[in-house]
Specification:
The complex is a heterodimer of chains A (about 350) and B (about 300).
Chain A lengths: L19 H13 L14 H32 L17 H5 L6 H7 L2 H20 L2 H11 L4 H12 L6 H12 L4 H8 L14 H26 L3 H9 L4 H26 L6 H11 L1 H4 L2 H11 L3 H28 L9
Helix pairs in contact in A: 4-16, 5-10, 6-10, 7-10, 10-12, 11-12, 12-16, 15-16
Chain B lengths: L1 H10 L13 H30 L2 H7 L12 H7 L3 H30 L8 H13 L4 H10 L7 H4 L6 H12 L3 H9 L4 H12 L1 H17 L2 H6 L8 H10 L9 H5 L5 H37 L1
Helix pairs in contact in B: 2-16, 5-9, 5-12, 9-12, 9-16, 10-11, 12-16, 14-16
The chains are: A mainly alpha (about 350), B mainly alpha (about 300).
Chain lengths: ~350, ~300
């Protein structure tokens, strides 16, 4: 990853108290990044000097590191219960119980592969991912092109403010809003009722559920998705448009040959991120609607883990499903990124 | 007079470049219509929710549900909800968790981001790797749940703050922004003997007001909107935040918040009006706060996208 290197060649000037060699090495490190230390003429900065120079920074980083260690790395290790028949009550404490629970190897994974409910959840997850990729993904691009073509600054700002708004609403609010429109007591059902048609209720229809959740996702987040594309569009030089216009390209040709190619890297990046996240399609959104529409349509992998683990107390099995999902997720990110590289795009990280 | 002319000037389009063909009437109409449709799609449902929450019960009964066209206004739903009881308590909980949670998250994130903002400092690469690796692999719901239980955090408000206190993405955005500040500025302070903490507080943070506002908003919205942690870690109904009360009211079909059920049964209050009022209460803080920070969004999002 190129994150530590080269972003600021002179970002590491040492404090005045440190003598010349420290400056040379620090600068060399900043520009070369992974170059082995101590190869420069100046020699290695003694640990003591660096400690004295940087201890305040380390102290500032510690709360963050500690928080991540406790609430990320410790639970990460806790995934070992996926290879156990974990019983939280076998010892006084949930953590010490790990050391007393019997090991069962890959039994939980085998059980998962043989569980039809798991495959139902997987199928739902993948189906919803494909639908959302096809119907959600292009919307922000189209909206960004639309907003970008508006030249009145006031109109632009107001439209953006309105479209960003739903992103900041909680899923509880979004689903409630949809319920008030499409639900059994919603505004549409109510209007139909007044005209003698009864029984309209999209919120509990298992067949329409996949379209409903996609519509919810579009309503909530498509407006927010514009922001990245707008920034990319703002960076396109107007010279390109002018040159294209001189060569006789009309409005649409300019969009096809100038605007869209400018968006390509951003689109590739977002696609990679989306594919890497394919197995997580809106946990909260589905959990909230699981009761109304039934587990058959609304069960995705994340809600399945929740149901098996936290509802049923089958911790080891749920952890195994979660672990497999996590591993496949990492593989998907790496794979999608590789694919982006093959297409000549930058992807999430450079080699 | 002068206000009028500035208003007109700001609504008038800036001149188009000469090479651009003048827009056709049909094109302009289509574009405007589409834009209007998008905005109505967002604001329409919110309008209905707000109007229904402000309508007196007879109006709601007469329409048979949600009210689109306001006929009469009453604040009784709000005064009833805010004069103590379940919803008032839930609002206090939500405000408290959001306030202290955001404060804590920002403190940890800003300190961490500044600590990591100088490549080449001692342990920099290892610390950075440690925090970035967490973006690739989530810890998993079940082990996190068991950990929170084992630490004895269940049924405390800490369980709503600590497990999700920092977003590594936000830290990286802050870090990228801090790294973009000219080192000459901090350099001179350091020569004059200022400590790192002092440099952060008096030089870096005032220069990063925009990005700090954006990240604070992200954290605050996160805490305000959260309901899942409360649903698995809190068993005491009295401790639940506003979103969870809203779930009970709207999703689970409870008629009215506890304490107001009597009034609904006797026909004083409308169950629907109360629900919509709770919704508006949950929606107001974000709807008010986010437009203020809007002009900084792009900056905040992009520094992260480019360098993080």
């Amino acid at each position: 990853m190129s994150l530590t290197t080269g972003s600021r060649p002179d970002g590491t000037r040492p404090p005045a108290a440190v003598e010349e060699p420290a400056a040379a090495v620090a600068a060399a490190e900043a520009t070369k990044g992974r170059a082995p230390r101590g190869t420069g003429k100046a020699g290695k900065v003694p640990f003591r000097v660096r400690w004295h120079r940087d201890r305040a920074l380390i102290l500032m980083t510690l709360p963050l590191i500690a928080l991540l260690l406790v609430f990320h790395y410790v639970p990460l290790l806790g995934n070992v219960i996926a290879f156990q028949e974990y019983d939280p009550y076998i010892a006084g404490n949930g953590i010490t119980a790990i050391f007393h629970s019997p090991w069962v190897g890959l039994d939980q994974v085998v059980r998962m592969v043989e569980d039809p409910l798991f495959w139902d959840a997987t199928q739902n997850t993948l189906l919803l991912f494909v639908i959302q990729l096809a119907l959600f993904f292009p919307v922000p691009i189209a909206l960004a092109l639309l907003i970008n073509s508006v030249i009145r600054p006031r109109v632009r700002a107001v439209a953006q403010a309105i479209m960003y708004l739903p992103h900041f609403f909680s899923w509880v609010l979004v689903i409630t809003v949809f319920q008030q429109i499409f639900g059994g007591a919603g505004i549409i059902a109510q209007t139909l009722e007044n005209h003698g048609v009864s029984g309209f209720d999209l919120m509990t229809d298992a067949d329409l559920f996949k379209w409903l959740v996609t519509a919810e996702a579009v309503w909530k987040d498509a407006g927010w998705g514009i922001i990245v594309f707008l920034a990319a569009l703002a960076a396109v030089s107007t010279d390109l448009y002018e040159a294209a216009a001189m060569d006789g390209a009309g409005r649409w040709r300019r969009m096809w040959h100038v605007t869209l190619p400018a968006l390509r890297p951003v689109i590739a990046l977002l696609l990679v991120l989306r594919v890497g996240d394919a197995l997580s399609v809106g946990f909260e959104q589905f959990l909230l609607q699981r009761d109304a529409v039934g587990a058959g349509a609304a069960e995705v992998l994340d809600t399945y883990v929740w149901n098996m683990g936290i509802q049923n107390g089958d911790f080891s099995y749920a952890a195994a499903v979660g672990l497999v999902k996590g591993i496949i997720g990492v593989a998907l990110v790496l794979g999608a990124n590789k694919f982006a590289h093959l297409l000549g795009e930058q992807g999430v990280y450079k080699k | 007079m002068s206000l009028n002319t500035t208003l007109i000037r700001s609504l008038k389009a800036p001149p188009r470049p000469v090479w651009e063909e003048p827009p056709s009437k049909a094109g302009l109409t289509a574009k405007g219509g589409l834009l209007l449709l998008c905005c109505l799609g967002v604001l329409g449902p919110l309008w209905i929710v707000v109007v229904t929450s402000l309508s007196p019960k007879p109006v709601i009964d007469q329409v048979g549900g949600l009210v689109v066209i306001p006929r009469g206004i009453t604040f009784i739903n709000y005064t009833e909800l805010l004069s103590g009881g379940q919803v008032s308590r839930a609002i206090m909980v939500s405000v408290g968790v959001t306030f202290f949670g955001t404060l804590f998250s920002m403190a940890v994130s800003v300190l961490g981001a500044y600590g990591l903002s100088r490549p080449g400092s001692l342990g920099h690469r290892y610390f950075l790797m440690t925090i970035m690796a967490t973006m690739f692999f989530g810890a998993g719901l079940i082990p996190t749940y068991l950990l929170v239980q084992a630490l004895g955090l269940t049924d405390t408000y800490l369980s709503l703050i600590l497990p999700s206190a920092v977003s590594v993405f936000n830290v990286l955005v802050l870090r990228a922004f801090f790294m973009g500040i000219s080192p000459e500025l901090t350099e001179s302070a350091r020569i004059d003997g200022a400590s790192e903490l002092r440099i952060l507080l008096t030089i870096i943070m005032p220069l990063s007001r925009a990005v700090i506002a954006v990240i604070s908003l992200f954290y605050a919205v996160g805490y305000w909107s959260a309901w899942f942690n409360a649903s698995i870690y809190l068993s005491d109904q009295e401790m639940l935040p506003l979103q969870n009360v809203l779930i009970q009211l709207v999703q689970k079909g409870t008629e009215a918040p506890t304490g107001l059920q009597q009034a609904v049964h006797t026909g004083e209050l409308s169950s629907l009006g109360l629900q919509m009022a709770v919704m508006v209460l949950a929606l107001i803080p974000v709807a008010v706060a986010s437009p203020f920070v809007q002009r900084h969004f792009k900056k905040g999002m992009l520094t992260g996208a480019i360098k993080g």
